[in-house]
Amino acid sequence: MGISKVGGYMKKSTIFYIALIAVFLVLAFIGYNNYKKPGKYDDFAKCLTEKDIKMYGAYWCPACAKQKQIFGKSFNLVQYVECGIPGDKTKQTEICNKENIGSYPTWEINGEKSTGVFDIQELSSITGCKIQ
Q: What's the predicted TM-score (pTM) here?
C-alpha cells in the first residue's frame, strides 16, 4: 500500500496525521521525562516519613487538596492516612475514629495533632526537617 499520493504529493490529511503523531510523541516524551524527575520536596517528605509524621485527610477535602498541592509530586512520599469513606462524607475510617481526627488535614507530629494547611517552612520549623 504506502502513502497516498495525488500527482506526486502526499494528501493533506496524511501530512496532518503524521504531524499529529509527531506532536503526540514529543508530548509523551516530555511528560515521561517530567514524571521521572524527583519532586521539589522529596528529601523533605522523606524526612517527615522517617520521623513517623502523618497527615490525615479525606479525598473530598479542599484543604487537603491544597496541602497536597503545596508538596506537589513529593506528596506521594508523605505518610498519608485516608479518612474518607467513598460515597459517604459523613463517616470516616475506623483508624481516623480511633485517632480522634475531627477535621482535615490533621498532622500528627511527635504524638501531637495539629490541624490545618501548613506551608513547607512551617512544617520544617515544627518538625526539624530541612528544606533542600
A: 0.71
